[in-house]
Specification:
Blueprint lengths: L2 H15 L9 H23 L3 E6 L4 E4 L1 H7 L20 H12 L4 E8 L5 E12 L5 E10 L1 H23 L3 E6 L5 E4 L1 H7 L3 H4 L13 H14 L1 E10 L5 E13 L2 E10 L1 H19 L3 E5 L5 E4 L1 H7 L3 H5 L12 H14 L1 E10 L5 E11 L4 E8 L1 H8 L1
Antiparallel strand pairs: 1-2, 1-5, 3-4, 4-5, 6-7, 6-10, 8-9, 9-10, 11-12, 11-15, 13-14, 14-15
Helix pairs in contact: 1-2
């Protein structure tokens, strides 16, 4: 610390104690000066050893003292700081707020705040400042002293965390599936997204801080017990099928994937719940269809647009005498009576074009060589590229008509 800076420090302390170099030289004053010198030396040792930067301003906001740590924080040389107004180093967007803070010092108030200050190389340094006013013996404002801590790294982490939280929040609320955060052990709902309300009917206000049991969201408690048990054991669960109860009492089939994470020392669960009601309905309809498919007394087949059977029912096998493997191994026109092959191929083309066939008749050759007349009704699903067809044996009817 050079002599100029030491003098500035001494003047600041002298102002604080109400002394100047013109004070009369008497024993009382000498004693005070001695005590002041000791205080100044102690203060100097403190400011040279603290980790924080120390900044002293006069009443006109001109820098009169800086310690080595502040020089390291801002990158300036001592003489590049002393004698300059502190506002010269403040980021311009913060000057208005900085002025408000300095006015508080003039009113005798302390202050703790964050401020962006320019480093000598042009980068911005985030600083945490604890400032106090200085008054002379007449109790008139004479400047201020501040401790300055570099919090740039902390702010970077905070900004990254904020960005991460904003991204999570955006994804959380935009997700088309229900998302919720609950406490693992209590089952308390901490947060829900908009899709939660759409699926279950409860608003966020009706749900947060409530227990899932209070809302009777789980249709079956056994499902909840299995789910929680798996989470406690494995810390995550994937594709857990269950049934939830909506606010209006209706049920909804869902598949739940969840993971346990720590939040403020508490085990919490992030759940993503997908509504599989349509899938379940389709599965049920498919099951019912195949029950009917397998039990029907009429021939039922599923065929592709290339003219091959994809699936045939037991009645078809019984009537024609072939195995399923034999029927699906080659184009079905190969089983059609030779005189009806062309009309069958033409009907297939017409069916694909208009989407259906009604009462189309042709003859099939059974495995034992017998020829049967079949009457077909068919629908072509363009989206699936699949034909669903039924046929009834009308051989006896044809014989009766002939005779």
């Amino acid at each position: 610390m050079n002599n100029l800076n030491k003098n500035n420090l001494g003047q600041s302390l002298g102002s604080f104690f109400g002394l100047n170099k013109k004070t009369e030289n008497n024993s009382k004053v000498n004693k005070i000066r001695f005590e002041l010198d000791e205080t100044e030396q102690k203060f100097q040792r403190i400011v040279e050893t603290v980790n924080e930067g120390v900044l002293v301003l006069d009443k006109d906001r001109v820098i009169t003292f800086v310690n080595e740590q502040l020089i390291n924080i801002l990158g300036y040389k001592e003489n590049e700081l002393l004698g300059h107004n502190v506002s010269e180093f403040i980021v311009s967007e913060e000057l208005i707020e900085h002025e408000r803070e300095l006015q508080k010092r003039q009113k005798g108030k302390t202050g703790n705040y964050e401020r962006r200050i320019y480093h000598k190389n042009g980068r911005v340094v985030w600083c945490y400042i604890s400032a106090s006013p200085l008054f002379n013996i007449q109790k008139k404002f004479d400047g201020s002293v501040a401790l300055v801590t570099d919090i740039t790294d902390r702010k970077k982490i905070e900004n990254q965390l904020q960005m991460s939280e904003e991204k999570f929040s955006a994804a959380f609320n935009a997700c088309p599936d229900l998302m919720s955060i609950t406490s693992l052990h209590e089952g308390k709902i901490l947060d829900v997204n908009e899709s939660y309300t759409k699926l279950l009917g409860y608003t966020k206000a009706e749900s947060v801080e409530k227990n899932t049991s209070e809302l009777s969201i789980w249709a079956y408690s056994s499902d909840r017990d299995k789910f929680i048990s798996a989470l406690k054991k494995n810390r995550q669960v994937s594709d857990f099928e269950s049934t939830l109860r909506r606010k209006d009492g209706t049920f909804v089939s869902v598949i739940d994937s969840a993971k346990v994470f720590k939040f403020q020392g508490v085990d919490c669960v992030l759940s993503v719940v997908h509504d599989i009601s349509d899938r379940k309905k389709a599965e049920l309809e498919r099951e019912q269809f195949f029950n009917f498919f397998n039990l029907s007394s009429d021939i039922m087949v599923i065929a592709d647009p290339n003219g091959a059977f994809k699936k045939v029912n037991p009645t078809c096998l019984n009537i024609l005498g072939y195995s399923e493997k034999e029927l699906i191994s080659k184009p079905f026109v190969d089983f059609v009576f030779s005189e009806d092959k062309k009309s069958t191929i033409d009907e297939m083309a017409r069916q694909i074009k208009i989407g259906s066939s009604i009462n189309f008749e042709n003859r099939y050759v059974c495995k034992n060589g017998k020829v049967l007349w079949l009457s077909w009704r068919a629908n072509y699903n363009k989206k699936e590229g699949t034909t669903y067809a039924t046929a009834r044996d009308i051989t006896d009817k044809k014989i009766q008509i002939k005779f």
